[in-house]
Design a protein that fits this description.
Elements (H helix, E strand, L loop, with lengths): L9 E8 L6 H10 L12 E10 L2 E10 L9 H5 L4 E7 L3 H5 L1 H11 L5 E6 L11 H11 L3 E3 L8 H20 L1
């Protein structure tokens, strides 16, 4: 079977985690469909989106699992983490508690996944007048964790695609290291 330029080089499962109402679904849907809704329903268990992106000249199919952030779903989340090759941890820049809980999400990922590329994302930057977490705080935490950091707006689309593209590139690099 010969490969064509349309062949997908990699298929990666990505989990999107973070507290409830941080905009995980909005970020995922903005990336997958280019749309935004003011009213999303609470995620029950997991939502799912698939899209092909280009990373380092390779077609990469991302299967993105948007997990429920509520504590009452913590017992089912581990089954969605299985097989994940990357993760985006989302907090809401207008909600300090969601930022303070990033460490808990990191622990949950470490508990249920092998070492995988991570991104820290502060969402809702379009609500600047309600901001409780500074860019500097987000950058500082990401630096401490040794992971890339972005601030996004699912509403305007600002930097959403860049997050997924960056994660795809990191996952391709990890996969190619493993093959080498």
């Amino acid at each position: 079977m010969s490969k064509t330029k349309n062949d997908v080089a990699f298929l990666f499962k990505v989990i999107v985690v973070g507290d409830a109402a941080t905009g995980k679904t909005a970020v995922t849907m903005r990336w997958a469909t280019g749309t935004f809704s003011e009213s999303y329903r609470m995620t029950i268990g997991v939502d799912f989106a698939v899209k092909i992106v280009e990373a380092d000249g390779k077609k990469v199919k991302l299967s993105v699992w948007d997990t429920a952030g509520q504590e009452r779903f913590s017992h089912i989340r581990p089954m969605y983490f299985r097989g994940a090759r990357g993760s985006i941890i989302v907090y809401d820049v207008t909600n300090k508690k969601s930022f303070e809980n990033v460490g808990n999400w990191l622990e949950e990922i470490k508990k249920h996944c092998e070492r995988i590329p991570l991104l820290l994302v502060g969402n809702k930057i379009d609500l600047e007048d309600q901001r409780e977490v500074t860019t500097k705080e987000g950058e500082g935490l990401a630096k401490k964790l040794g992971i890339p950091f972005f601030e996004t707006s699912a509403k305007t689309g600002e930097l959403v695609t860049k997050c997924f593209t960056m994660l795809a590139k990191e996952m391709v690099e990890e996969a190619e290291k493993g093959q080498g």
